[in-house]
Amino acid sequence: xxxxxxxxxxxxxxxxxxxxxxxxxxxxxxxxxxxxxxxxxxxxxxxxxxxxxxxxxxxxxxxxxxxxxxxxxxx
Amino acid sequence: xxxxxxxxxxxxxxxxxxxxxxxxxxxxxxxxxxxxxxxxxxxxxxxxxxxxxxxxxxxxxxxxxxxxxxxxxxxxxxxxxxxxxxxxxxxxxxxxxxxxxxxxxxxxxxxxxxxxxxxxxxxxxxxxxxxxxxxxxxxxxxxxxxxxxxxxxxxxxxxxxxxxxxxxxxxxxxxxxxxxxxxxxxxxxxxxxxxxxxxxxxxxxxxxxxxxxxxxxxxxxxxxxxxxxxxxxxxxxxxxxxxxxxxxxxxxxxxxxxxxxxxxxxxxxxxxxxxxxxxxxxxxxxxxxxxxxxxxxxxxxxxxxxxxxxxxxxxxxxxxxxxxxxxxxxxxxxxxxxxxxxxxxxxxxxxxxxxxxxxxxxxxxxxxxxxxxxxxxxxxxxxxxxxxxxxxxxxxxxxxxxxxxxxxxxxxxxxxxxxxxxxxxxxxxxxxxxxxxxxxxxxxxxxxxxxxxxxxxxxxxxxxxxxxxxxxxxxxxxxxxxxxxxxxxxxxxxxxxxxxxxxxxxxxxxxxxxxxxxxxxxxxxxxxxxxxxxxxxxxxxxxxxxx
Lengths: 75, 547
What we know:
The complex is a heterodimer. Chain A has one domain (about 10-75). Chain A is about 75% helix and about 0% strand. Chain A is built from 2 helices and no strands. In chain A, helix 1 runs antiparallel to helix 2 (about 45-75). Chain B has a single domain, classed as Sodium/glucose cotransporter (Up-down Bundle), CATH 1.20.1730. Chain B is built from 26 helices and no strands. In chain B, helix 18 (about 325-360) packs across helix 19 (about 365-395). The longest helix of chain B is centred in the first third of the chain and has 39 residues, at about 150-190. Chain B is globular. Chain B starts with a helix and ends with a helix.
């Protein structure tokens, strides 16, 4: 098989993937926080809701930052 | 609009948008089918696990089975981790890589010839079509029951989202989405375990209520029940599940293997597969252990569950508050979408690489097969949608899928093991063994009335192994080029830079450029063997605790 088009730089693919993952997790986490009646929850549910959403947002932030840094490194 | 519906809509819109954004980087078939061979090991870990978990093999069906049969259902998680993921990562993935292939059937052809490749491809394409239809059906029903939205529009929306990012982005988009889904499932749905354990008084509370007060059998709490257990007798779990089905699934399922072929190096592929056994093991705490606690919670809340498959949905619907329920719906949708996406990608790869390119249009430029891949994805979506009403109305097609899997996995394991570990295995032997093993599986089920899946798989494996062995000895040995570089006895020290790279350079289908080989040793904390050992020790401790 011939290779008509050169492949995309693998490092660019990973950078785009990291950025997309980060933004999806971040926006989803924020959307869940905004639509959750945290104050009305019982303490058990409130604790786990905060832990769960907080960790998703944290992972989202980490991947977004990682993706941006990788983009910058690629120039 | 309720907050749960809002979160679901935001999640689906994000998946859709990210897929379109990513697709701008896809240029050729290597990018489309193998993600440009760019994925690092942690991508592989998340993608392999998310591929494995769906509505069918995960929250709804496995969770429902755990509700009905108990801890035995955790076998799929706790034995598939060490036996399937680790053994495949350590022993099989390297040979797929060295063969420079896109699909598992291509490996079978390299080692054995055309016939077995065609049979294997067609069987899996059928299984994939049924799997997508079943996942869409379960997803549609789940959203219909929990969000009160109509079935068919839901199915079309799910198909539209997953179809778009798969159609445009190929394996790279699939791996990316699967990592998102991995995070949402792990972090979003794990709290249910802790909430339920708190409500029922821990593991002791579950056993004292179910055994002490309700008189449930102790078999409900064991991973290896006795020989008379109707669902999964212990000896057949060890022989059929651990040694045949789990390894056959991990080493032979195109979706599982394809994620590893998209890795940036063989080392990343192996480490990714080995560490994927960690989320696989933890999966039991997402939907098996909670469903064992569920009967106690249902009795506390006065809820009656008529069908075990509906138990997980009913539990979260009645237990979780707004917002948190929305995140759970996103988590469950993640499971379904990752499964549909990976199977869709694998089906289109097999259709183009194993059928279209071999039998219909040969020697066209790369761009032709790139477009063909997208058309095949569209075709698979259309056929799967047409199959949804069939899955909806008759059980025959699901029965056929189970029968095909029982026919495929045992014989496949036999010919794969001999392909790698016995260079004398040849084309006539493998074909005879594969077909005899498959026919024997049908006979066991249809004539002798054996209905334990693991038992069928074990005996079809043994028969295929014996026939392949005997016929190979009675016929001439394979030519050297059929075995060099892809069997256990190959001398890789001598072959590195010679046979392997020459094969890649000469291979008519290899599209990515062959880079100069530089061997970089990983740091100790990323050593595959250390990880495999640590995971095995943890697994044994887990089994001793729950055993």
